[in-house]
Amino acid sequence: MRLRILLAAAVISLVHARADELPKPQPLVTFGLITDVQYADAEPNGERHYKASPAKLEQAVAALNQANVSFTLNLGDTIDRDFKSFATITAITAKFAAPLHSLLGNHDYSVADADKPRLTQTLGMPGDYYAFRSNGIRVVMLDTNGLSLNKYPAGSPQAAAAVEAYQKLKASGAPNAQTWNGGVDDTQLAWLDRELTLPMPPRNRSLSADIIRSCPPVRM
Fold first, then answer.
1. Residue 207 belongs to some domain of the structure
2. What is the pLDDT of residue 21?
3. 116 contact partners, CB below 8 Å, separation of at least 6
4. Would you say residue 204 lies in a domain?
5. Domains identified in the chain, total number
6. Which residues of the chain are modeled with pLDDT < 70?
């Protein structure tokens, strides 16, 4: 019995030794993620401390730069309100060492209608929705404000369509029938179908950025 125990211990030790000698798998890509910075030059409202956002963002930029990420995703609500708020935040995000790819949230549209066409340019976005590739990963950035009560100027056909969709959801008792929620419009869905049928090199992957929520650098 003692001999069998000793043999078993020897085998376990050998297995552990060989496992330690195996090369550790390397991630395909390491990226950072920020979301809901929601800065405004405003006093706190409940748990929202708007003026504290810049300092926290500075810490995030420093941490992600130190982590040497390939890119960082900004998933929206960069500001809480007022177009002038963007200048404070973009001065900080300009310090990212790696590329920053942004999306717009409902709070980013809390600006004058005249300023809304400038939002994508302000955040360095090629469009409301787009795709990019990094280290063999295709990242699809979706605009979930395509159907939205916040995005379009009052009286526009898009605003009327959003109101109609919201009213239908509200009448059906849908729990997501909230004024701050949005959806992906048909034009964008058609684009997504085309994007996902584009050929990718073998062993490459696609990632949809509208559903990711995380804090530390993400490794895939």
1. no
2. 59
3. 109, 151, 152, 153
4. no
5. 1
6. 1-23, 200-220
Nearest in space to 209 (alpha carbons), one of 122, 111, 63, 105: 105
Full-prediction pTM beyond 0.70?
yes
**Residue range of the domain that includes 114:** 25-128+212-219
The pair of three-digit structure tokens given for residue 5, joined into one six-digit string: 């125990």
User: Could you tell me which of 141, 142, 149 has the C-alpha nearest to residue 181?
Assistant: 149
pLDDT in tens, 66-114: 999 999 999 999 999 999 999 999 999 999 999 999 999 999 999 999 9
CATH number for the domain that contains residue 56 = 3.60.21.10
CA of 136: how far to CAs of 68, 96, 133, 218, in Å? Answer: 17, 21, 7, 15
CA 217/CA 196 separation, integer angstroms:
25
Burial of 210 (0-12, 13-18, 19+ CB in 10 A): middle
Measured between its terminal Cα atoms, the distance across the chain in Å is: 46
C-beta separation of 208 from 140 below 8 A:
yes
Assigned domain for 4 exists: no
Tokens 């699809």 — which residue? Answer: 140
pLDDT for residue 154? 86
pLDDT at 29: 86
